[in-house]
Amino acid sequence: MKNTDFIPNAVLDANVLYPIHLRDFACWLQWQGAHRMFWSLELGTELRRALNRANSDHQLGDRVWRQLNQAFPDNLKDLHPKVPIGLPDADDEHVAQLASQFQCELVTFNLRDFPAELLKPIVVRHPDEYFLDLVRNYPLQSIESIHSMRLARHKIPVTNEQLLEALAQNRLPRTAAQLSRLGGQY
Q1: Domains detected in the chain
Q2: Which of 25, 28, 22, 61 is closest to 43 using CA atoms?
Q3: Are 81 and 98 in contact (CB under 8 A)?
Q4: How many C-beta atoms lie closer than 10 Å to residue 53's C-beta?
Q5: What pTM was computed for the model?
Q6: Whole-angstrom Cα distance, residue 110 to residue 114?
Q7: What is the pLDDT of residue 185?
Q8: Which of 3, 61, 63, 155 has the most crowded Cβ, counting Cβ within 10 A?
């Protein structure tokens, strides 16, 4: 059992959990003890809708959500709504409120939808910045996460380089570059 008392806690917005490679990397990093994610039913609804809408398999979102909660049952948190923050998109309120409620970072590609002046003391970060910090602070867990991702893809084998390219293509170029620099340790 890993000591998770002092690891980063984060709410990953649905747009971060949507791409399979980012979702897998985030999950493997949690299994390795490098961070802990929190989500709510509202975030799950948003993720499920996006996955179901964008795929010919209209049950994919439901399966992914069920698998996330089976793998990490303690990550699902009850959201205690507060007074609206006044975000540009009212549909994002639940994400900010969850981060506020659990005093953790909010990780999203949509930085403009979460203005810092409205969210203090919540730290809002781009996924590349967040994951790059995890890789720098937890290099062994990060390497093991990539290795585990590769091994889990036994039906369609991939190389570490292909996984790093997939992370870079999913808007984590600096994270992928840092993992590549650590590549001699794979």
Answers
A1: 9-138 (3.40.50.1010)
A2: 61
A3: no
A4: 10
A5: 0.93
A6: 7
A7: 53
A8: 61
